[in-house]
Amino acid sequence: MTGTPPALRPFVSRDADLRRLAGRTIAFIGYGNQGRAQALNLRDSLTTASIGAEIIVGTLEDESWAQAEAAGFPVAAVPQAAEQASVLLLLIPDEALPEAFREQIAPWLQPNDALVFASGYNLAFGELVPPPNVDVLLLAPRMIGRQLRELYERGEGFYSYLSVEQDASGDAWPLLLALAEGIGTLRLGAFELSAKNEAVLDLYHEQAFGSILGMTFYMMLEVGLQAGLPAEALVVDLYLSGEASQTLQAMADVGFYEQSHLHSRTSQYGGMMRSLGLDREPLRQHLLRVIEEVRTGIFARQWAAEQAAGCENFERLRALAGEANPFTPIERRIREALDQARRGDG
After folding, report:
1. What is the pLDDT of residues 202-231, one digit of tens each?
2. What is the DSSP letter of 32?
3. Confidence band (pLDDT; 50, 70, 90) for 53?
4. Would you tell me the crossing angle of helices 63-70 and 33-48 to the nearest 10 degrees?
5. 87 and 113 in contact (C-beta within 8 Å)?
6. Is residue 185 exposed (0-12), middle (13-18) or buried (19+ Cβ within 10 Å)?
């Protein structure tokens, strides 16, 4: 173990000044879940504060174009939006961003323009290299777009990571904090974290926690069935009831340990005793392998090679996972049984 890393620098609403956005043309490049939520939040914030700034959307001529128009935003093709704006929030998928940047955004950049990334992936692993005469910012919400918008509308905030990766204008931090305030994250709080660390953390979470959680559910179903428990009851208890998600939410609300007090003493005792009985070393080794391959760029190179090869292995993996998925048929049986019961023809 190395020494304890320094605490993350926090930011809240009092650190930001929305007036820094006055007179700017701000383009949301991409109008998916994140793009839509962030654009709507920022527009509402600027309107409430009576700050004059133009927001435009740059996207493909598809459903997202129609959605942006329906929401009242001026919409343009990506190159035209990039040409008009001095602040560009890049909200298209990581794998599509490098090519889009090279061909549709970079040719239109002007000195002191600002590029705002919602993910550190392409910066961290060298997939995209911005020119030296623009600001390069990271504004990475830790929340899905739909919930991001709902929290904003309730007057609440959400966590984000922020960093200035390149300050060509000398005004990058005030601009970044104004954007963070505008989309609503500073209502709760944001923390400074480099693009490299954000990317490593994000991938580590997805690949380490995601793989362990998914395989745990598979194995609990398998062992429970072998023990004679009903498949439907296992799925309800594992996740379909929402109790597991509420436990995670309680961790966020009251604390990792403190949430245990919301459960019965029997539950607390059993959980703690079984935790002590786990062989943690194989788990530790799995986590070490994951974070090392993420940190060193091995995974990024594997993923780049897979995309270059047409994603054949990726599609095979998805097909295999779909074929081996035991949960969907059980979920379907649960919903059908409840529908029949409601109709009275069960």
Report:
1. 999 999 999 999 999 999 999 999 999 999
2. S
3. very high
4. 20
5. yes
6. buried
**CA gap 59, 319 in Å, rounded:** 30
Lookup: tokens for 155: 């007057």
Nearest to 127 by CA among 159, 160, 172, 94: 94
Q: Which domains does the chain have, with CATH numbers?
A: 10-193 (3.40.50.720), 199-241+278-343 (no CATH)
Q: Are 73 and 99 in contact (CB under 8 A)?
A: no
DSSP string, 292-332: HHHHTTHHHHHHHHHHHTTSHHHHHHHHHHHHH--HHHHHH
Helix residue ranges, H only, 135-279 = 145-153, 172-183, 195-204, 210-226, 231-235, 243-254, 265-276
For 8, the 3-state DSSP assignment is coil
Q: Maximum distance among all alpha carbons in the chain?
A: 70
Q: What value, to the nearest 5°, has the Cα angle with vertex 147 and ends 95 and 127?
A: 15
**Regarding beta strands 54-58 and 25-29, do their DSSP bridges make them parallel or antiparallel, or are they unpaired?**
parallel
Q: Which pTM value belongs to this model?
A: 0.90
The whole-angstrom distance between residue 112's C-alpha and the CA centroid of its chain comes to 27
Report how far residue 303's alpha carbon sits from residue 277's, in angstroms, rounded to the nearest whole number.
36
Residue 46: which H helix or E strand, with range? Answer: helix 33-48
Give me the mean pLDDT over the 27-49 stretch.
97
Structure tokens at 20: 């820094």
DSSP one-letter code for 72:
T
Q: What is the pLDDT of residue 3?
A: 57
Neighbouring residues of 53: CB distance < 8 A, sequence distance ≥ 6? 21, 22, 23, 24, 25, 26, 46
